[in-house]
Amino acid sequence: MTMNTSIAFLGLGHMGGPMALNLGKAGYTVTGFDLSPTAIDAARTSGLTVAATAAEAVASADVVITMFPTGRHVIDAYSGNAKTPGLLSIAKPHTLFIDSSTIAVDDAKRAHDLAVAAGHRNIDAPVSGGVIGATAGTLAFMVGAVPEDFTLAEPILTTMGARIVHCGAPSAGQAAKICNNMILGISMIAVSEAFVLGEKLGLTHQALFDVASTASGQCWALTTNCPVPGPVPTSPANRDYQPGFAGALMAKDLGLALDALKSTGVAAELGPIAAQIYRRFADENGSGVDFSGIINTIRDNSTAQTNA
Ligand code: NAD
What we know:
Layout: E1 6-10, H1 16-25, E2 29-33, H2 37-45, E3 49-50, H3 54-59, E4 63-66, H4 71-79, H5 87-90, E5 96-99, H6 105-117, E6 121-124, E7 127-128, H7 130-136, E8 139-144, H8 147-158, E9 161-168, H9 172-200, H10 205-212, H11 220-223, H12 247-264, H13 270-286, H14 294-307
Helix pairs in contact: 1-7, 4-6, 9-12, 9-13, 9-14, 12-13
């Protein structure tokens, strides 16, 4: 792939919009498309060339990047329906399809098989780093790809990310993403429970932080995304839990982890509990709140029990 490479970027939402812009700034010829007129308008205003239809964006592209909400969106867009032709049938032969959405491992496998059967290349390249990382071009990409496709995609991903990890064969990127986020969900609950317990035992937040952040309780949920205001000034807790990483997305990712735990038969206990806790959190007003806001639920429930 060279700078003459033509890229269709579909899904210009919170993440896709800034990612597409960074590709354009790096010199690629980028044409964007989104089903939402609002997203199209925002992308056009920020300087991206946009197409009137997905077909128009994809027909002459060498690379098609998708950044959609779910696996259903990816498979439907790839396959099409009676009214809308699928992207796989519109694209030139041997087009490189890069899906950066966070989707189920099984959906990633299916998307890969569909793309290859249609004569294309396909890799899964989900990201972490949020909207800030998407805007700054510092995302971490977790890639599932055959080696040849990884080599083709790497320079493109590098313009949007600071760290590109080839995790293995197709779908391995999604596997890494949900395993990582299962660790994150569980550890955020653990850190939050510990802070509420510390409060009940008369410990200051700073004292617990000073000990745990340099002892065996150390983890990202504590040292970077600390769920109490104060010890880490940049954590969402200092701005009323504005995301950051929204509760809805953590609930979604843990749901994907739960599906994978079930389909693989892993005897996990904490993963399913974390999925349940974040599903409830998202359903009860936590959907747009940073996932570290789970500490408020734990504290509120604790108070109710103490007073009962
Ligand atoms: P978003 O809802 O803001 O954007 C998704 C966009 O896809 C929407 O604008 C929607 O209209 C568009 N879309 C859906 N189907 C389409 C189609 N067939 N053709 C064209 N456009 C279509 O979501 P987001 O926050 O940008 O997240 C995208 C993906 O990235 C999700 O899978 C999410 O889990 C993952 N992710 C998000 C974050 C984050 O912080 N927002 C972080 C890491 C990963």
